[in-house]
């Protein structure tokens, strides 16, 4: 048995997450499907990586000084990652998020000592959008930086240098496909760029929820959304700085219902409690695996991101009344008899 690795600093706990073969998805796809367990990061999500790289980059450029403040607009997980990294390095945190995100994320941010500002959800073109609000707060706060996760390419650099390299090593230098959804675009672009450096034949696929515009953009060249999704932290209506030049080879659109089906199956069959973005990613990985099998690839291997823990959505995805109110199927074990 390999001895556990000693970490010299708590921030060294970010990254180097486990990779696991998912049995049910592998059976469905007819090939091996692997999930990168990003819920194993200290902040329980993939966004810890971007938070660390963004803050370290701001320090290296001299923009973030001792005792300074980091301001970000986020659906929640990036804010949690920033709060933890900032705490470890002696910075304050101000987080702006839409008020329709899960209460668990808001409670967590307050518990971590972040100053939380909530705003009504609105379109990006609205000056009161959470991203624009966070930028203004950064400009108005002495000693503050705006982390700007959507357009700050330190975000995707975290995945070029970290996630992609880890996947390549963990999969023993043989990975046929990778897919995940895009929020900021940092993960899909960064992992895609990193894996393409190792093997240009690795297929990079976008998995988009309904309501987002990127599926149509990569399929037809037009930023156009159709439908809607309750998934938090994914779905994008513009080409962010992180998405510019992303090596997207193909694309899939996954419904909330299909994503929730995999959330339910992964919990009941494999003991993984995950959020909806992970379920959507897994459904996309199955679609990509089936496509590679149909194309004649021999025993293709596909990886995706298990973004965060389901414990962050106990008041939403794992609440029968909330699911019913959204017109979504209720997990069987949450259903009550008459």
UniProtKB/TrEMBL annotation:
Its cofactor is pyridoxal 5'-phosphate. Gene3D superfamilies: 3.40.50.1100. PROSITE patterns: CYS_SYNTHASE (PS00901). Pathway: Amino-acid biosynthesis. Pfam families: PALP (PF00291). Coiled coil: none annotated. This is Cysteine synthase A.
